[in-house]
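Teaching note: in complex prediction, the entire set of molecules is handled at once rather than each chain in isolation. The prompt given to students was simply: 'Predict the structure of this complex.' The entities are:
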Amino acid sequence: MANLTLIQAVNDGLRTAMSADPTVCVFGEDVGPKGGVFLATEGLTKEFGKNRCFDTPLSEDGIVGAAIGMAMNGLRPVAEIQFQDFIFPAFDQIVSEAAKLRYRSGGQYTAPMVIRTPFGGGIRGGLYHSQSGEAYFCHTPGLKVVVPSTPYDAKGLLIASIQDPDPVLFLEPKALYRKIKGEVPEGEYTVDLSTLRMVREGGDVTVFCYGAMVAVCEEAARTAAESGIETEIVDLRTLLPLDEDGVIEAAKRTGRVVVVHEAPRFCGFGAEISAMIAERCIEYMEAPVARVAGFDTPFPNTLEHHYLPDARRVLDAIERTARY
Amino acid sequence: MQIHDCFVDQTGELSPDFPGYDDAWLNEVFSEMLFVRCVDERMLKLQRAGRIGFVGSMLGLEATMAGAARAMRPTDWMWSGLREGGAALLRGLPLSEYIAQMYCNSMDTAKGRQMCNHFQHKGTNYPSWSSVIGTQITHGVGAAYASKQRGTDEVHTIFFGDGATSSSGFHSGMNFAGVWQAPCVFVCVDNGWAISVPSSAQTASVSYAAKAKAYGIPGFQVDGNDAVAVHEAMAALIGRARAGAGPALLVLRTYRLMGHSSSDDPTKYRDEAEVELWRDRDPILRFERLLTKRGSLPEGGLAGLRARHEATIDAEIHAQEIVDPMPLRSLVEDIYAEVPTHLRRQYNDFLRVAEKHGEAQKGDGAFPL
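The expected output is the structure of the full assembly:
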């Protein structure tokens, strides 16, 4: 066991996967000798050579398109998109090609590949270094969308994603890269790509969240406990496919639900959770589902701390839902 | 590297540089081109008769297919851009699978999921195009990188039309391949028209081949209606890539004699005189002239050969007419390696309604949850 930050756990996951499987290749902008702008790939070129960890030309659609071809021809590509905000030139390749390849070829061709990308706010990155675009990708059958929130999960989910037979978009909450530390086993282990994680038990209100919002919700839950409200926290962590049965069970347990994400509210992931609860267990609900989300605006710069859900806003939603 | 523009001219005369293939070789190429044409004509008839939904005709492009196909090994990859179905047949795609794909029935290896004219054949490394123009170009480059990385000697031929040279995939693909020295050959089938948009509205470059210069790779163009010129250029550039000398761009100048598809009326945007000019440059007519001069036309002439090809094709059409459509379960299969719970639930909900209306067949049963 080592005590690692989340970014160190990502690096450890890549190194472990590359050691275990010679077909794993890591590439993207500045990921070679520099080791990536956040140092996720630090040391990999030196250790595995420039054929297995390398810089590409500056073209997101080229990176993802080439990754698909590599995956179709026997490699296990792990492509980095420097910021999730820069992924949209590759949207076509992800949505029209990688995600549909297995289906449209009747299973003859597949794209086992991972696209890693830092996402979310909290680093004063303004409009184009802060966005949370998970909802765009969760609307894409054939793709898997994964968001770790702890160093343990970051490594275990990443290795599972690299081994998975389908394309995975791996969204890394960059605000947590160096903010949190945790115990991470050495060597290979995986975390299942279809089960949620119970973060905290509590019988009064259930909070669903993922990524950097998990720590925010934990802080709110601690404060709520001081006034006697016991909050259950569920880290969804694999948004697609989602552990739907796990969500419904958790919602039924308290009958009071809050959903928290950084992304804009309208058509955000919280809308799906709310609809699912309405369809499958509304008879168990004691209160309306509350959503705490980013505004339906571009991501601000100097006012980002007001845009991002914080413990005060989450606490307010927990209290309102508990008292309803 | 010397690439000859033309070996067999429009009148069927051989140039002094002709590589010296014998009558048997030339007859095979002639037969292959005619076979592709017969398949195309039959598919158009089926479409007009309402038996299949859509045809993207290859009429006029047969020399590009016959010339390219025989320059490739079965282990080489061919990345289709749209109209390469004929080349796939000549490389080994069974005619039964070709026609099943046009019927989108349960014999289609793609399980009837793509509209017509999206062929694939894993056995000869031929993935289908998606419909989105230019997206396969970077796939071919990435796959070529993988071939090199894995130490194989596979070469990737990446096909696309003149319109695709404007796509971001073309730029990224050419650029990545140049940097990586990937073992691939970019093949631009310049048939003059991107649906209704002529080359003059597609680019201000002096030629499509000139674009290669910007990426530090060589660019060539040849008469795409001369199967020998296509074959020689493809063989040379594939050989070059296989030897580790990197990628190249080859432009095959040809002409799409029919509309973009069976849904397109080309008289709205192009002059009939231009089409007539190209009819006389027909690659099959050109070879017929050549073989007539050499006195080596096959038995019964063109008509006899055509009749034999049509009999083969018709027999296969009859067989495919009676194949079942895809089972309902295929709606949710192959999205992921395993059918996830939410798709099982969605299917089972749908099945209740389908069963109520008598639409469910054997094999359409519910998934366990």
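Point out the following to students. The radius of gyration of chain A is 19 Å. Chain A has a mean pLDDT of 98.
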